[in-house]
Amino acid sequence: MAVLNYTESSRKVEEAIYDRVIPAGEGWMHELEPGQVLRIVDLEGNQAADTLFYHAEDPEDHYSAVATMLGQQNIYLSTGTVLRSESNKGLLKIVADTCGRHDTLGGACSAQSNTVRYAHDTLPMHNCRDTFMLQLSMYDEKYTKRDLAPNINFFMNVPVTPDGGLTFADGVSAPGRYVEMQSIVRTVALISNCPQLNNPCNAYNPTPVRVLIWDK
Amino acid sequence: MNSIWNKTIPAGGKWSGTIGKGKLVKFTALGKGANLSTIMYHANQLTERYNMPDTLKAQHTSHLTKGHVLMSDNGRVLTSIVEDSLGWHDSISGYTSRKETDEKYGITTYQELRNNWLRSGEENFAVELVRNGLGVRDLVPVLNLFSKVFCDKNGDMHYVEDHCYEGATVTLRTEMDTLFIFSNTPNPLDLRNEYSSVPIQIEVFDAEPVKDDDVCVNFRPENKRAFENTWEYHTLLSDSKSVVLK
Ligand SMILES: [Zn+2]
Fold first, then answer.
1. What is the DSSP letter of A75?
2. What residue stretches are annotated with the DUF1989 domain (chain B) (predicted)?
3. Considering chain A, what is the average pLDDT of its residues?
4. How, if at all, do strands B178-183 and A209-214 pair?
5. Which residues have beta carbons under 5 A from ligand 1 (an ion)?
6. Does B217 touch chain A (CB under 8 A)?
């Protein structure tokens, strides 16, 4: 496996201005001021935090997986990665990462993609895209399905091989691993803490994540 | 077989339009080093669109070739790749922006060069999206037909310069009524400082009905289920007598 990129943070939990646990299968939508730092902690390990960002002053400018990968000509996200919008604005920058690698090619699970990937009878199962849509509907009616672009899967490992394969590997995360990103502009974060029960990546056991915010 | 329609998109050009289900759409590179950035939407429900992650993870692939299908975000097959002379089309490297185009090839303007100014994917897509009642918020990862971009074991992305030869072809079959938007602009990872766009011919033919042994339907069980979702959609739309209860 390729080199992982570990950077610890010096930020202290007791100095955070916001601290919340997102249970497995729940969503979270929250605005970050420029300079604020968001940490997501994988409390029990090998969980997927499906995450999207929007430019708060231009909500139609959503996170872009491709612009983010192109900006560094590398598909894996870690410390130093600038998370870019469709118009190629830097929204946030990853400033610490004790997981070493995060995915932005695998997208979010949905009821419909579950029927394709696993079986037709998985249609009723809870999924990330339902969480995204529920959160968007509660947050502001200006957000619609049109704003659901491919997302980031924090703590997920989706290796791509030189011959064009794509696999879902064992998680590179572990209990307590975290990723931290500093907002460059006013940014809206949208998280679905993945409820997927069909995928061995989380040992078929979705677990909570914790979000913390610092003012700088 | 004679095409029912054909069009050549010049270097830097763009085109958008709806092609109904059950057609073959054949693309031919009229020079080497072609790159056709392509987005697809379900013509009858524009919020349903090509979804790169769903397409790649269902088929366990990061490149696209014959047998693969291009899935929508509703678990259905918009189009399938039924013929391919190249073996690799790119799905992860996006479209060129105006800024990159200016930086790489020098600033060109309409005022100076009239219609020979160098177009960008960003602007081509913006125009055609708006023309179809959509907008830049509807931009999602595109396909780059004719391009090969691979990732090494560290995840670094590499564009392969001599991948596409003159005369290379790829054929999509429409499984749903599909709005296509094409931008014939260079791949963003093509680092040569020559604007390497070449004309691309598009021909449309009527397709044979999909048979039980179809290569795309049978490529993986995931593909079969995506086709079943697509057929279910069409069953519910049609006037089939079997669903009419008296
Ligand atoms: Zn999920």
1. S
2. 8-179
3. 95
4. unpaired
5. A 109, 128, 194, 196
6. no
